[in-house]
Amino acid sequence: METITVMLIDDHQVVRQGLRDFLELQDDIEVVGEAPNGEEGVQLAGELLPEVVLMDLVMPGIDGVEATRRLKAASPSSKVIVLTSFADDDKVFPAIKAGAISYLLKDISPADLAHAIRAAQRNEAVLHSEVAAKLMQEFSAPRTNEAPVEQLTPREMDVLRLIAKGKSNKEIADTLIVSEKTVKSHVSNILSKLHLADRTQAAIYALRQRLVPME
């Protein structure tokens, strides 16, 4: 069984200990480090290169949004899951734009948190229902300054729809019966043609363009 390495960044020691106690009960999850603030967390993540980081937002020094931005620069392969008590617009949108793959509230059940960690390791997003509703409201209307979807080939459209459904490159390759290398090439072309930075923006674009149902 593959083990998912996880790091905790939260300024409350009690919260970190509670998370560690639960996560260490999971056979496929290993907590490899923790930090009490964003600055130390970014430095430690650059050393440990964890697969998944649980990130608080409100901390002394640099906040979780800035820490996420710096962490993604120091450890691009690490998937950041925001785990916070706040679902305010001024925190949700900046965190997603900074590179967080998922946004969860601290009232999440332990089982759902473990599911979100496993999903993040597969490059799949999980959003708290309140956060998902905010994103859909923000991004549901098409915008006139977007690159037209007609630039994409039919196969790139297929890939974009599957990205919007949270599918990993391997799952897309299996679905379309092509190699992962081919999928990576399609993803790169999609991001370039539509002037998008990453898969999250691509998924949001697909939702705005109503290429997939908004569930």
TrEMBL record:
GO terms for molecular function: DNA binding. One of its GO terms (biological process) is regulation of DNA-templated transcription. Pfam families: GerE, Response_reg. PROSITE patterns: HTH_LUXR_1 (PS00622), HTH_LUXR_2 (PS50043), RESPONSE_REGULATORY (PS50110). Keywords: DNA-binding, Phosphoprotein. Coiled coil: none annotated. The keyword Signal does not apply. Residues 5-121 form the Response regulatory domain. CDD domains: LuxR_C_like, REC_NarL-like. The modification 4-aspartylphosphate is found at residue 56. Residues 145-210 form the HTH luxR-type domain. The keyword DNA-binding applies. This is DNA-binding response regulator. It comes from Candidatus Viridilinea mediisalina.
